[in-house]
């Protein structure tokens, strides 16, 4: 992969598919006008996220050069100069502003909030225990809000709860995987494995409880409750990988690379499609 493209971290864009969630559950996924707006919002979010990654790599250049794996990042390794990175960063932001201005102005302030929070996170908040986890969880929350506002569809409070808890689960799992490394980020020195283990189990439990209640109380289907088995399979498999490997450090890669998680996720999506759109 070319260094400039690696700098944008396209593999991380998978997290932005959360933007489509409100449209899907609002039963409007096949409404062309709304799907177009949400797709544009997805592109905008991907480019904004990439600009944040570039800015973060610029800030962390010296620290990354001392890290065993991060030293291979384009800026840290010298494959991309700071000047080139800034030009790419500005270009991405220009495209983002143009698309928002002409097509989806309703998400402008949310995108500004997302970008500013990321800048503050990169400079300050990622070094503060607990706050670093909660702020990253907020980024998932913003993705859902952007998707709902872009499509102009209501967002279920139950759905928001599920997203908040699953994001906490993924973030804590990432921190726990990072904890086993020799080159720890500074904030990890404030945590203990016992605390992260407890947080991981708590967040996993909250995901299962919130989704169970959602499937029974909100989804108008006699078979929706059985989809909880797919959710439990995905969560338990992820827990297994957290405690037996270091793969959870990159959740976007795990979801695609691990066959059990990928297939259970795909089966869940298909199940939801049949329940919501075919009224099974």
Query: What is the CATH T-level topology of the largest domain?
Result: Tetracycline Repressor, domain 2
- Beta content: under 5%
> How widely separated are the two ends?
43 Å
Decide which structural class fits the backbone.
Answer: mainly alpha
Q: In the residues, how many domains can be counted?
A: 2
How would you name the oligomeric state of the polypeptide chains in this document?
Answer: single chain
Mean pLDDT: 91
Question: What is the helix tally?
Answer: 13
**Relative helix content:** over 70%
- Return the string of H and E elements: HHHHHHHHHHHHH
The general outline is: globular
CATH architecture assignment name of the largest domain? Orthogonal Bundle
What are the main properties of this structure?
280 residues, mainly alpha, 13 helices, globular
Word description of this protein:
- The protein is mainly alpha-helical.
- The protein has two domains: 1-155, UbiA prenyltransferase (Tetracycline Repressor, domain 2), CATH 1.10.357.140; 156-280.
- The chain is built from 13 helices and no strands.
Summarize the structure.
By secondary structure, this protein is an all-alpha fold. It has 13 helices and no strands. The model has no long low-confidence stretch (mean pLDDT 91).
Secondary-structure topology with pairs:
Layout: H1 3-7, H2 21-25, H3 32-59, H4 61-65, H5 74-77, H6 82-102, H7 108-123, H8 131-151, H9 157-179, H10 193-217, H11 228-244, H12 251-257, H13 259-277
């Amino acid at each position: 992969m070319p260094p400039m493209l690696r700098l944008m971290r396209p593999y991380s864009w998978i997290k932005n598919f959360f933007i489509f969630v409100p449209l899907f559950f609002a039963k409007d996924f096949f409404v062309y006008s709304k799907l177009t707006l949400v797709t544009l919002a997805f592109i905008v979010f991907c480019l904004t996220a990439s600009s944040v990654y570039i800015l973060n790599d610029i800030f962390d250049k010296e620290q990354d050069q001392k890290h065993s794996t991060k030293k291979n990042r384009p800026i840290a390794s010298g494959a991309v100069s700071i000047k080139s990175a800034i030009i790419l960063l500005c270009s991405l932001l220009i495209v983002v502003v143009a698309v928002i201005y002409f097509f989806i102005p309703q998400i402008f302030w949310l995108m500004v909030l997302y970008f500013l929070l990321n800048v503050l996170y990169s400079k300050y908040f990622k070094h503060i225990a607990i706050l670093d986890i909660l702020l990253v969880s907020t980024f998932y929350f913003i993705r859902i809000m952007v998707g709902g506002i872009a499509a102009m569809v209501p967002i279920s409070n139950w759905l928001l709860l599920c997203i908040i808890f699953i994001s906490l689960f993924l973030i804590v799992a990432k921190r726990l995987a990072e904890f086993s490394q020799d080159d720890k980020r500074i904030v990890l020195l404030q945590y203990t494995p016992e605390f992260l283990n407890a947080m991981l189990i708590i967040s996993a439990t909250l995901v299962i409880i919130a989704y169970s209640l959602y499937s029974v109380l909100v989804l108008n289907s006699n078979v929706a409750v059985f989809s909880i088995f797919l959710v439990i399979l995905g969560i338990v498999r992820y827990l297994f990988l957290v405690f037996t490997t270091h793969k959870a450090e990159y959740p976007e890669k795990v979801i695609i690379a691990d066959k059990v998680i990928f297939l259970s996720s795909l089966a869940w999506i298909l199940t939801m499609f049949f329940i919501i759109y075919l009224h099974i």
